[in-house]
Amino acid sequence: MDVSVNVGYFGPHITGEKQLIKELDDLGISCIWTAEAYGYDAVTPLSYFAALTNRIELGSGIMQIPGRSPAMAAMTAVTIDKLSNGRFRLGLGVSGPQVVEGWHGVSYGKPLKKTREYVQIVKDILNRETKTTFQGEFYNLPYDGPDTTGLGKPLKLIEEPLRKNIPIYLAAIGPKNIELTAEIADGWLPFMYSPTLGDNFFNKFLDKGFEKSGDLDKKSKFNISAPVFAKLCDESEREIYLSTARNNYTLYVGGMGAKDKNFYFNLMCEYGYEDIATQIQELYLKGSKLEAEALFPSQLLDDLTLVGSKERIKEKLEDWKNCNVTEISISIPLDIDTIRFVKECM
User: Fold this and answer.
1) Could you tell me the sign of the dihedral formed by the alpha carbons of 307, 311, 313, 318, in that order?
2) How far apart are CA 72 and CA 128, in angstroms?
3) How many angstroms separate the CA atoms of 78 and 165, rounded?
4) pLDDT at 274
């Protein structure tokens, strides 16, 4: 199992920690992931990290599909892959309706259909075999809408990509989204993946996607990179450090998205915590955030994290090694001693 790190939305916050970034590279950490919502973008920090490192891969986890045309995403991927000498991972996701319509100002539409079309266009551009044309429900190249000038024409990427097979990852939580990811992508970026409960729920959707892909070896090549909050500490300090993870998971279950469009809430219900998830969401949405946090189940919190003594973390890593996840992605705040220990245990 590989070990990566995930700085989330806060890539620029660690740009001053050059020694840490170089040390991650020296340790053999597989990838450094960044994200974007409606603050810092996911791409710019990766360019900075590329300049400081030689081996570690650079992953957008994720670039938002509604924020860029497929062509722009492909151009960006080709650029960072070239600058990093072939170390880029293209992570994509549709985000949620509140961000898509409230921030990017476009229709949320049909996320499955939109993602499929988007990835198909990106792959076509990267392959660079012919000029890119596409006629879909959401994307048309050349554009042929009612206000067209009629001057658009098929184009081909000017520069030859360093790699035509830049790995594509998709962020997905819902069953159909996971199935699509297994079918058309090279890897999956889940959230709140439980090493003891996740396989039982996710396997059927992944297997359907692998079958649809037509690639008999797809499952063996597919990478699942799961973010995990980790901290090596005395057992007496566990609750102090777990409070950060508890706050984060409660935010996602309780308030990330509209009440009837919250994929993280649905996942917690699938894990068997429907009653508690409902209470958390109700409290969170009415502003009682601390009360909502207090309800987050300690058993699930422990399952989703790696916090405590060396003995505890080493024991819990066995659950991760025995599940479908192929890469643990340690999230911020990054602690080099913790990262080093987890890496040594793999």
Assistant:
1) negative
2) 15
3) 10
4) 96
Tell me, rounded to whole angstroms, the distance of Cα 276 from its chain centroid.
26
Residue 219: C-alpha distances to residues 194, 208, 214, 222 (Å): 19, 11, 11, 5
* Residue located via tokens 């649905």: 266
Q: How far apart are CA 251 and CA 245, in angstroms?
A: 10
DSSP strand pairing (31-34 vs 134-135)? unpaired
Between CA 89 and CA 59, with CA 178 as vertex, the angle to 5 degrees is 15
Give me the chain's average pLDDT, please: 95
pTM score over 0.90: yes
Residue 91 above 80 pLDDT?
Answer: yes
pLDDT at 5 over 70: yes
| Range 39-50 burial, b when 16+ CB lie within 10 A, else e | ebbbbebbebbb
> At 277, which amino acid appears?
A
3-state helix, strand, coil in the chain (%, to 5): 50, 15, 35
Question: What gap in Å lies between CA 301 and CA 44, rounded to an integer?
Answer: 32
Of 301, 283, 252, 280, the C-alpha closest to 8 is 252
The pLDDT, as a whole number, for residue 296 is 97
Please give the Cα distance from 33 to 45 (Å, whole number).
10
Which CA distances in Å does 97 have to 34, 105, 110, 256, 258? 21, 10, 11, 10, 8
The Cα 283–Cα 248 span in angstroms is 15
Neighbouring C-beta atoms of residue 326, cutoff 10 Å = 17
Return the closest-CA partner of residue 315 out of 342, 280, 276, 275: 342
How far is residue 229 from each of residues 5, 77, 126, 271, 330, measured CA to CA in Å?
A: 10, 28, 34, 19, 6
